[in-house]
Design goal:
Blueprint (H helix, E strand, L loop, with lengths): L1 H30 L3 H6 L11 H33 L6 H33 L18 H29 L2
Helix pairs in contact: 1-3, 3-4, 4-5
């Protein structure tokens, strides 16, 4: 049990650091956004004009996937915190795992919305006829759906195991 607590503490610290890095990185990305950087981040367009309005809108649309990532890290931090305390097979942890699984479904939806809005924001300053609305759904979007389904299944098993353990505890 000590090994689980030690590894969980490391994972919790890593997730906490990652929380800060993701938050600072997402906002910083738009502060230093250039047309070349926009093309690197997947904007599949010919011409990009970056203005202060573009950067403000960029930060606004980045909140969509950022909120999902930050909430997922928050859930992981709480999960590892519970493991550190020795609370491994609890109903609360099963609920946290279920939420993480459901979050992966939401992530896929947010990814489609974000990529669509990203191209729209990056090209809205372009002259008429060069503005682009592009909806992208990549085959790699299936991976979060698969992992989310696996995590939800594991949480379901944990909930059922918790019920069985409670039933056995009632038998004298």
């Amino acid at each position: 049990m000590d090994k689980i607590a030690a590894i969980s503490k490391r994972c919790r610290i890593f997730c906490t650091l990652l929380y800060g890095v993701v938050l600072i990185g997402a906002v910083g990305m738009w502060v230093f956004m250039t047309p070349e950087l926009a093309l690197m981040f997947g904007a599949d367009v010919k011409q990009v004009i970056i203005t202060p309005a573009t950067k403000i809108l960029g930060v606004a649309i980045t909140v969509i996937p950022l909120s999902v990532i930050l909430y997922g890290l928050y859930l992981l931090i709480n999960l590892f915190k519970n493991y550190e305390k020795g609370q491994v097979f609890t109903l609360l942890n099963a609920i946290i795992l279920r939420r993480i699984g459901l979050l992966s479904y939401i992530w896929v939806i947010c990814e489609v919305i974000y990529s669509t809005l990203l191209v729209l924001v990056l090209t809205f300053q372009n002259p008429p006829g060069e503005k682009i609305l592009q909806i992208t759904l990549l085959p790699s979007s299936i991976i979060p759906l698969v992992f989310g389904s696996i995590i939800i299944s594991i949480s379901w098993v944990l909930v059922e195991a918790q019920k069985v353990a409670e039933d056995h505890a009632l038998i004298p």
